[in-house]
Design brief:
Layout lengths: L4 H7 L12 E4 L4 E3 L7 E7 L4 H16 L6 E7 L6 H10 L5 E4 L5 H4 L9 E5 L5 E3 L10 H9 L3
Parallel strand pairs: 3-4, 4-5
Antiparallel strand pairs: 1-2, 1-5, 3-6, 6-7
Length: about 160
């Protein structure tokens, strides 16, 4: 008897301390990058899209965070675009025009593999994962929030 992906996602526990979903998407060069590639690092994930106005408002704050932690190899920043497949070129142009750093990934037609398990109904959504690949929170503060730096620091300093 098979199980639907919807049922499996519904039954999955996404609470603090549980394993984060090991998503795998392409970067701007077509290379597949998985969350598991960053075991040993804390990971701050930004689920966003080029058309999303609140997402775009967070970009300068995210860039400021990335700059603040640029010499700290304990944390990695990953952007996961949920733009539709037809907008892949637009996404590539956008990340270049906005000088977006960190790891930028394109989910495209596979967006549901991150949206559904985390029950993401609206973006931007930020997720914090610890060095062991465990969820710290599936609803982390936005880069513009004063609460994000204490969360990042607590996560990267976790033993």
């Amino acid at each position: 008897m098979g199980y639907s992906i919807e049922l499996v996602n519904k039954l999955m526990d996404h609470s603090v301390g549980q394993d984060a979903i090991n998503f795998k998407f392409q970067d701007k060069n077509g290379k597949f990058i998985a969350l598991s590639d960053f075991k040993g690092h804390a990971v701050y994930i930004d689920v966003w899209a080029t058309w999303c106005v609140p997402c775009n408002r967070e970009i300068p704050y995210l860039q400021s965070l990335e700059e603040q932690y640029k010499n700290d190899n304990r944390i990695v920043f990953i952007g996961v675009s949920v733009d539709s497949e037809k907008d892949k070129r637009k996404w590539k142009d956008f990340i270049v025009a906005k000088k977006m750093h960190g790891i930028q990934l394109f989910a495209g037609d596979n967006s549901n593999s991150i949206l559904n398990p985390y029950k993401i109904k609206g973006i931007p959504r930020f997720i914090m994962v610890d060095q062991k690949g465990k969820l710290v929170t599936v609803d982390a503060p936005r880069p513009s929030s004063p609460e994000i730096i204490p969360l990042i620091n607590a996560t990267i300093n976790k033993k």
